[in-house]
Write a structure and sequence with these properties.
The complex is a heterodimer of chains A (483) and B (411).
Chain A lengths: L5 H4 L16 H9 L9 H5 L4 H11 L5 E4 L6 E4 L16 E7 L3 H13 L1 E4 L2 E4 L2 E5 L5 H14 L4 E4 L3 H10 L6 E5 L4 H11 L3 E4 L3 H13 L5 E4 L8 H18 L10 E2 L15 H20 L4 E4 L4 H14 L12 E5 L8 E5 L2 H13 L4 E6 L6 H7 L4 H10 L2 H4 L4 E4 L7 H8 L2 E4 L7 H8 L2 H12 L1
Helix pairs in contact in A: 5-6, 6-7, 7-8, 11-12, 15-17
Chain B lengths: L4 H11 L28 H17 L22 E4 L7 E4 L18 E7 L16 H4 L11 H11 L4 E5 L17 H14 L4 E4 L4 H15 L5 E5 L4 H11 L2 E5 L4 H13 L7 E4 L9 H16 L9 E3 L8 H4 L11 H17 L3 E6 L2 H15 L17
Classes of the chains: A alpha/beta (483), B alpha/beta (411).
Chain lengths: 483, 411
C-alpha cells in the first residue's frame, strides 16, 4: 500500500483554515495527522457540520491503520496492541510497544502466585521511560474447567492486569470467561478444529480472540470465517516454533503477515500479531533442568523475543520471569519503539545539578541523550552538588565523539566561553570522562583548567570525588600551570 | 440467558406479560438452530413473535468455513550485495556478502553466506591491579583470558578464541600504537613492535586477520603501510578508513590487494560519500566492507538498527554505494552498564554472569537481522550464543512439522 501523503488528506478537510484545531492551516493539520501528532477529532467542523459527513467517512477510512488496534483488559491497565502503519521503523515509527505477558499454569498455584506477583511488581524507570510488563497468560494444564476457573480467579485476586485464557477446549475456555466477565480477556486460541465453538464464546462474551495456524492460508481462512460470523476483534498467531530451521520459518511467517497487511493492504488479516517465545520450553522437563540448561533455554527465549520485537510483533508471551531476562527484553523493546523522528540530542549548556555553589565540581559530557541522562541520573542519585557542562557533539556519545573528532579541546573551550562557565564556577578544575582521557593535555592548554580524568563510567564519580577532588591541590596545580 | 434449550424456553416465557406480549429491545441472539414449542402460559402468539424476532439475528451469526488464500509475496530486489572473501594463504578463507534478499527472508529465497564472528585480540595485556594497562576489560570478559593469562601474547590469545571458542576470524587491535597513550601502560608502541605482535598471531592461527588501528590517524597510516609487506599474499582487512584518512590508506590496500573497512558514524549520507570516494580511487568493489557504527543495546542501538536496515535495503534495491557487507563492533555492548555493572551495585538487575553475555549476543543478533555480516565480539559465551542462533535461523526448512500449541500444556 502506498504511503499516504498530506495531498491525499487535504481534499477531505474543510479547507477553511479556521484554526480551531490549533494549527494555522488545514495543510499543517494534514501533515500532523499523518504523523500521529494530532487526532482527527481535533478538526471540530468536520464532526459538527453535516455537509462534511461524507468527507469525514472517507477520511476515517483513509487514516485507519492497515493493522487495527485491539484492546485487552479494562480500566487503567488496559492495553491496546497494533496500529502500525509501516514494516520498517525508519519509515515512520512503531506505535504501541510490544505487550509483554508471562505464562502461569493452573496446576501449580504457588508458582502461579509467585509469577503473577513478579509481573505485577516489575515496574521501573529507565532513562525517562517506564519499563513494565503487561499481563498474565493462564494456561490450562489440568484439563479441568473448574481448576482453570479457580486459577484465573486467583490471578484476578492478585492483580487487575489484562489476562489471556489459554486452552483449546471450549468448555474450559467458557469456565475462564465466566470468571473474567467484563474483564475483556484475550481468548487463546481458535484453530481450524475448534473455531465454531470458540467463535460463539467470543460473541457471547464480547472479547477478542486469537486465531492460530502455521499455514497462513488457513490462518486467513479462520479470519475470514470469523469476520463472516460478525467477529472483528482478532489477534493472529502464525505459530512460534523453536529449534533449527523452525525459527527462520517463524520469523518469515511474521514478516509475511505484516507485509500482506501493511504493504499489500490485505484487510482480512489486518490484525495485531502474537508470538510465544515461551514455546522454547515446550519439550523440556522444566522442573528437572540444571541451572546451566535453564539459562541456555532462557537465552534462546530472549533471542526469539528479540527477533520478534525487532519488526513489531504486537504481543509476546514469555516463560522466564527473572530480572536479568526482563532487563534485556525490556531494553530491546524500549530501543526499537523509540521514536526515530526525535533527535537523540539534548541542548548543550551548563547544567546545575543539586544546587551547586561556585566551588562545586565541574563535570563534562556530550549532548547525546543517553549519555546525558546517565550522567545526570548518577549525579542526582549521589546528591553531589555539581556543574555539568554538556558539549554539542551532534548527539554522539563520548567514545565515538572523541574518535570522530566532535569532542576536542577547542570545542570544549568554545563551550566554556559561550556558557560563561568561568563566571559561575570559581575554581580551576574540570573533570572529563575516562573515555576522553586522551584530551587531557590539549585541554589543559586550551581551556587553562586543571583537567582531572574521571572514571570510564560515571558510576565511579563518588569514588573519584572522595579520592581525587581536592580544591586546594587543584588551585596549587593551576598556579604552577600559570608560570 | 441460558444456553440449555429447556431452560431457555422457560426464561423466555417469564419475559411475556399477561397479555402475551414481550418487547425486545437492543438484544442479540446467536444460535445454531431453534426449536420452539408452545409456551405453557403465554400462548401461541407469543411464540410466533419470538420466532420472527429471532430469525434475522440468528442468521447474522453464521459459522461457515470460508476458504481463503493469502496472496504470495513477491518482491523485487534487483541488486545483490558484493561478495567479500577474506583469504589466508595456506589457511582458511571466510566469505561474507552476496545477499539477494533482506536477512532471513526465507520466504523469498536463501542468502548464500551467513553472518560470521571475528574475535578481538589486543596488542597490550589486560589491566590488572599489579599491571597497569590501557586495556581495561570488564570482569566477566577478562576472567576468560587471565587464567591462564593469554593477554601477554596476542598469539596465544588468538589461538584461544579460534580453537576453544570457535571464532571465524581474529581482529588484532593495535591500540598500543597510539603515540598519545602512556608507554608504561602499553601505549606509544612502534610499528616494529606491531609487526612482532602480528607475526605472533599469524603463527598461532590459520584464519584471516583484521588489522585494527588505534584511531590515531597519522599512526594508523604508518601502521597499515608498515604491515602491508608482511600480509601480502593474504587478503586481510585494514580497519578502518575514514573520511580523513582514506586518501592515504586506500592506495596501500590497492597495491597489496587488501580489504578496507569503511567507517562512518550513523550517517547514511556520509557512508555513501566515503564509499564512492574509495571506489573513485579505483579500489575494487570486492575489497570494501562498511561499518556504520554500533551503538550498544540500551545506548543507541535503535540508531544503528535503522541505519543498518536502511543501508541494506538500499543496497538490495540498487544503490551501488551501499551494496557492501556490513561489519560492526558489537563488543561495544560491554560499554553498557547493564552488561558490566557489578551485582552488588545493581542487585535489581540480577546476576551479571547472565545479563553480561546476553547483552553482547542481543546487540550482535538484532543487527544481524538488519544486515550485519561480520560481528566483532569478545566474550566466548557471546560468540557461542550468537553463532548458535545464526545457525538455527539459517538452517533449511525442516520437513517434519511441529505442533506449535504444545506450549499450552507444558509442565
Amino acid at each position: 500500500m502506498p504511503k499516504l501523503s498530506p495531498l491525499n488528506v487535504i481534499p477531505l478537510l474543510p479547507g477553511t483554515n479556521c484554526g480551531q484545531c490549533g494549527e494555522q492551516t488545514c495543510m499543517s493539520f494534514a501533515v500532523k495527522l499523518l504523523d500521529h501528532l494530532i487526532e482527527l477529532k481535533e478538526c471540530k467542523p468536520l464532526f459538527s457540520e453535516k455537509k462534511y459527513a461524507k468527507k469525514l467517512k472517507k477520511l476515517k477510512e483513509l487514516v485507519t491503520p492497515p493493522i487495527i488496534s485491539i484492546k485487552i483488559g479494562t480500566g487503567e491497565k488496559q492495553i491496546s496492541i497494533g496500529g502500525e502503519e509501516v514494516l520498517y521503523r525508519h519509515e515512520l515509527t512503531y506505535y504501541s510497544p510490544t505487550a509483554i505477558f508471562v505464562d502461569v499454569n493452573d496446576e501449580d498455584l504457588d508458582d502461579l502466585i509467585q509469577r503473577t506477583e513478579f509481573v505485577k511488581n516489575y515496574d521501573w524507570i529507565r532513562l525517562g521511560d517506564r519499563i513494565n510488563l503487561q499481563g498474565i497468560a493462564v494456561r490450562s494444564l489440568s484439563g479441568n474447567p473448574d481448576t482453570f476457573a479457580q486459577a484465573v480467579k486467583k490471578v484476578l485476586s492478585i492483580t487487575d492486569l489484562p489476562i489471556i485464557l489459554c486452552t483449546l477446549d471450549p468448555k474450559i475456555m467458557e469456565a475462564g470467561l465466566k470468571v473474567t466477565k467484563n474483564k475483556n480477556p484475550l481468548m487463546y486460541t481458535a484453530t481450524k478444529e475448534n473455531w465454531k465453538e470458540m467463535a460463539k464464546l467470543a460473541l457471547e462474551y464480547d472479547v477478542p480472540i486469537t486465531v492460530y495456524s502455521t499455514d497462513l492460508d488457513e490462518l486467513k481462512s479462520l479470519c475470514v470465517s470469523l469476520e463472516n460470523a460478525g467477529i472483528n476483534k482478532i489477534v493472529l498467531d502464525p505459530g512460534t516454533i523453536p529449534g533449527e530451521g523452525h525459527i527462520g520459518e517463524t520469523y518469515s511467517r511474521h514478516i509475511i503477515l505484516k507485509k500482506s497487511a501493511i504493504e499489500k493492504g490485505d484487510k482480512s488479516i489486518g490484525y495485531p500479531t502474537i508470538g510465544i517465545p515461551a514455546a522454547v520450553w515446550m519439550d523440556q522437563d522444566i522442573k528437572n533442568l540444571s541451572l546451566g540448561e535453564r539459562v541456555t533455554l532462557s537465552y534462546e527465549e530472549a533471542k526469539l523475543g528479540t527477533i520478534l520485537i525487532s519488526h513489531a510483533t504486537n504481543l509476546l508471551i514469555f516463560h522466564t520471569a527473572e530480572n536479568w531476562f526482563m532487563l534485556a527484553i525490556g531494553v530491546v523493546r524500549q530501543n526499537i519503539y523509540a521514536d526515530p523522528r526525535i533527535n537523540p540530542a539534548v541542548e548543550p549548556g551548563l547544567y546545575e545539578i543539586n544546587n551547586p555553589t561556585p566551588e562545586s565540581p565541574l563535570f563534562l559530557t556530550t549532548n547525546y541523550t543517553m549519555t546525558y541522562f546517565v550522567v545526570k541520573g548518577d549525579l542526582e542519585e549521589s546528591r553531589i552538588p555539581s556543574w555539568l557542562l554538556v558539549i554539542n557533539t551532534e548527539g554522539i556519545g563520548v567514545e565515538c565523539a572523541v574518535a570522530g573528532g566532535d569532542l576536542n579541546a577547542d570545542a570544549i573551550k568554545e563551550h566554556i566561553e559561550k556558557y560563561k562557565v568561568n563566571e559561575k564556577v570559581k575554581h580551576h578544575g574540570i573533570i572529563i570522562p575516562g573515555l576522553a582521557a586522551r584530551l587531557q593535555g590539549e585541554l589543559e592548554d586550551s581551556a587553562n583548567r586543571v583537567v582531572i580524568v574521571g572514571p570510564r563510567d560515571c558510576g565511579g564519580i563518588p569514588l573519584l570525588l572522595e579520592k581525587r577532588w581536592n580544591l586546594e591541590k587543584i588551585e596549587k596545580l593551576w598556579q604552577e600551570m600559570q608560570s | 440467558m441460558s444456553r440449555d434449550p429447556e431452560e431457555f424456553m422457560n426464561d423466555l416465557e417469564k419475559l411475556f406479560d399477561e397479555t402475551g406480549v414481550a418487547i425486545f429491545k437492543d438484544i442479540q441472539f446467536f444460535i445454531d438452530s431453534l426449536v420452539l414449542r408452545p409456551p405453557k402460559a403465554a400462548g401461541y402468539q407469543a411464540a410466533t413473535m419470538a420466532t420472527q424476532m429471532l430469525q434475522p439475528i440468528a442468521k447474522r451469526a453464521e459459522f461457515i468455513w470460508k476458504d481463503s488464500k493469502l496472496a504470495t509475496i513477491t518482491e523485487d530486489y534487483p541488486s545483490e550485495i558484493n561478495v567479500i572473501t577474506f583469504k589466508r594463504k595456506g589457511g582458511k578463507n571466510v566469505v561474507i556478502g552476496g545477499e539477494k534478499y533482506p536477512p532471513f527472508y526465507s520466504f523469498l529465497g536463501k542468502n548464500p553466506n551467513r553472518p560470521v564472528v571475528t574475535a578481538d585480540v589486543f596488542d597490550v595485556p589486560i589491566h590488572t591491579k599489579e599491571r597497569p594497562s590501557i586495556l581495561r576489560l570488564s570482569k566477566p570478559v577478562k576472567e576468560h583470558f587471565l587464567n591462564p593469562d593469554v593477554s601477554t601474547n596476542p598469539g596465544l590469545w588468538a589461538k584461544k578464541h579460534v580453537e576453544e571458542f570457535g571464532a571465524d576470524m581474529i581482529t588484532l587491535h593495535f591500540i598500543g600504537t597510539d603515540p598519545t597513550l602512556p608507554e608504561k601502560e602499553g601505549g606509544n608502541q612502534s610499528v616494529r613492535q606491531a609487526l612482532e605482535h602480528l607475526e605472533q598471531v599469524m603463527d598461532a592461527v590459520d584464519v584471516p586477520i583484521i588489522i585494527g588501528g588505534s584511531g590515531n590517524h597519522r599512526k594508523d597510516v604508518e601502521l597499515f603501510t608498515g604491515v602491508a609487506d608482511m600480509i601480502a599474499g593474504n587478503r586481510f582487512m585494514l580497519s578502518s578508513v575514514e573520511l580523513d584518512t582514506y586518501e592515504k590508506i586506500v592506495p596501500v590496500a590497492k597495491k597489496y590487494d587488501q580489504i578496507v573497512l569503511s567507517w562512518t558514524q550513523l550517517d547514511v549520507n556520509n557512508q555513501k560519500k566515503l564509499n564512492s570516494e574509495i571506489l573513485d580511487m579505483g579500489l575494487s568493489k570486492d575489497l570494501i566492507v562498511m561499518d556504520p557504527t554500533v551503538g550498544p543495546l540500551g545506548y543507541g542501538i535503535e540508531y544503528s538498527f535503522s541505519v543498518y536496515e536502511r543501508m541494506r535495503l538500499s543496497g538490495l534495491k540498487g544503490e551501488e554505494t551501499l551494496a557492501f557487507p556490513m561489519s560492526g563492533g558489537t563488543t561495544n555492548a560491554w560499554g553498557a552498564r547493564e552488561a558490566f555493572m557489578a551485582d552488588k551495585l545493581r542487585p535489581e538487575w540480577g546476576p551479571r554472569a547472565f545479563r553480561g553475555p546476553l547483552w553482547e549476543i542481543l546487540t550482535a543478533f538484532i543487527l544481524s537481522i538488519v544486515g550485519l555480516d561480520l560481528a566483532m565480539m569478545l566474550h566466548p559465551g557471546s560468540v557461542a550464543g550468537f553463532k548458535d542462533i545464526i545457525e538455527k535461523l539459517s538452517a533449511p526448512k525442516p520437513s517434519k512439522p511441529v505442533d506449535g500449541l504444545k506450549w499450552i500444556t507444558m509442565k
